[in-house]
Amino acid sequence: MKLSVNEIAKIIHAEVVGDPSFVVKGVSSFDDSDTHDITFACETKYLTHLKQTKAGVVIIPDTFVCDELGSRNNILLKTDNPKISFFKLVSIFHPEKKTKPCIHHSADIGHHVRVGEDPIIGSNIFIGDNVQIGNNVHLMPGVYIGDDVFIGDNTLIKPNVTVIEKTRIGKNVIIHSGTIIGSDGFGFAQNFGKHEKIVHTGYVHIGDHVEIGACNTIDRGTLGMTVIGNGVKTDNLVHIAHNVKIGDNTLIVAQVGIAGSTKVGKNVIIAGNASITGHIKIGDGSIVGPCAGVRSDVPENEIVSGMPHMPHVRWRKVVSIISRLPEMRKNLFSFEKRLKDLENKNE
Q1: Which pLDDT belongs to residue 219?
Q2: Are residues 65 and 212 in the same domain?
């Protein structure tokens, strides 16, 4: 694949600073680029060091003022969103492998299954009874689909995913390998000193344009639904418990655990390794910091950190104090001793 700078500028609607006839032969990161590669720079630490990349072409924000030092060794393409523009080019230089529609002979397909147009159903797949599969759905090898599952158009389910009965999956969804959708929640009741299992009859509802990372576990509702809203993206190793409701366009980073019946609003960001207790609400537009322990409601547009969680500004002050605690403890004991000595002298 080879494209001139002028051709690329038309594809990503960019302004060219430099030679428009220069030929680009590949895409690469800022640090690993070669002379005929194109890369991008968004952050200040890269924009102020454009001369350090070997890339022949760099995509930069259209608001950035190009000085002579930065533009001397690079051709620049100015766009409103360099990252999106760059990865549009990545998809052109590295197009996805096309697979012809087919149903593999080893697929075990149950009764009353409706499959839409142009399916790709790989080897060693199990599909239960009364399943509805939309158009252009791709099920990769080793997928298990339980009874009464619905899968929307253009959905991709990667190898060794388990989708338990009654799950509803929307359109344009991606589910990565090893994920389990619709397993029983952690529900038990005490009965004469024993833990009796609570029957789970609910299901999971996943909206449109959702991407679920590898090795996620999303539990079915005890009676009703566990809901993953439209546009939600989860990283690897995320656990979402029974009856949790996740609002539209929320991001959940790796190793997050959300306990049962919690409601997470729209456009929320939950950073890595955060733990969220059950039966609480996290407001729209809020951010939960990494490793935070959230034990009560979080207001809309609030940024919280720490364990237990608190406003991020306060947590920064707490962190600055923690490292000084041994010295402060030592000083406190010294003050106590001096105070006691003074009291003894006055007696």
Answers
A1: 98
A2: no
How confident is the model at residue 71, as a pLDDT?
47
pLDDT at 69: 46
Distance of CA 323 to the CA centre of its chain: 32
Give the chain's domain count. 3
What pLDDT sits at residue 67?
63
Does one domain contain both 69 and 133?
no
- The rounded distance, in Å, linking the Cα atoms of 217 and 257 is 10
* Same domain for 325 and 269: no
Catalytic residue positions? 242
Low-confidence ranges of the chain (pLDDT < 70): 67-72
Which pLDDT score, from 0 to 100, does residue 320 have? 87
Q: Which tokens is 318 given?
A: 């707490």
Instruction: Identify the domain containing residue 189 by its residue range.
Output: 102-314
Pull the structure tokens for residue 59: 């995509």
Could you tell me the CA-to-CA distances from 212 to 50, 86, 221, 284, 332 in Å, in that order?
35, 23, 18, 20, 51
What's the pLDDT tens digit per position in 242-260? 999 999 999 999 999 999 9
